[in-house]
Amino acid sequence: MTNLSLSELEGFDPRNKRNRFCCPMCGNDKSIEAKHRSLWVDKNTGVWFCHRCENKGLLLEWQKQSFSSTSTANKQSFNQLNQFNHSNYSYQPKPVDEKKLKQVREEYQGFAKAFAYSPGQHYLSSRGIEPTLAKSSGCGFGYWKHWLNDNGTYTCLKDKRVCFPIRNQAGEIVAMSARAIDNDYLDPKQVVRGYKSLGVFATPEALETDTLVIAEAPIDALSLAMAGFPAVATIGTSWPDWLVNLASRKKLTLIAFDNDEPGDKASSRLLAELSSGGANATRLLPTRKDWNDILLTDGLDSLKSQLNSFNSNGYFPLTNTVYTADSQYYNSLSY
Prior knowledge:
Blueprint: H1 6-12, E1 20-21, E2 39-41, E3 47-50, E4 56-58, H2 60-63, H3 72-85, H4 98-113, H5 119-126, H6 131-136, E5 140-150, E6 153-167, E7 173-180, E8 190-194, E9 201-202, E10 211-215, H7 218-226, E11 232-233, H8 241-247, E12 252-256, H9 261-276, E13 281-283, H10 291-298, H11 300-308, H12 328-331
Helix pairs in contact: 10-11
């Protein structure tokens, strides 16, 4: 196990939220913000666990305490560590609050209706995503509210965000992800409202094709769809259980996570999980950091060429719909 202290965690992530921290082992290349707080700490027992890199252990401050072998705290620590070391351990999501879920769905509907000709549509166009694809994928736009507390006085501030729906296997909205599109945004840059662990972002046909393509970010799933390869996005490096079950019924599953250390680790975890579930899966590795990076830097034709190089099994192209990355008109708009 890796030795780690609470003081080290607090120094790495000073703005941590209660028992959630950014991980100093797998998060050095990530911004210190809410979406990257993958490390959980039980401050009663000192046990910690990172849901991204899966490192775990007992914080040094608790190791130094003189617990007797029969103490309640020592037994709790031992039991938790034993649970994390068990090969079948998996994160258990919190129960769904139907009232909260209804609020998320209502808020998303408002964002979806406001997408056409919005700054959100303009932003995605500037990233090479054709508006028709963005709209059919359910993208939205809205002014995200941030409530600031100044000695009991609350002030509401807003920033512009493009929104992505997160749906369960039945197609129902279970959460939404909102990404800031201006430089003067309020932290965090990306926020999720709802129950992300229950679903994925999906482009049209992504769940119906014989080949399942799984990316990290919505912008990468959209980039793959631009080249005729429908994809889903896990919005991070964790995924719902039903996605693994779905993959087992597909001819092929391609893991299209980012070309970086977190993407490598998550790909290895997902590949092992898919293989144990009977899925035929392999890694689809971008030549740059991610698929949108290829689309923006090398162009759509280059992206198509790289994807078609994986066509040895004859599963591509996955769709007859091909979008044209012509954003000249949309880039000329001002808001």
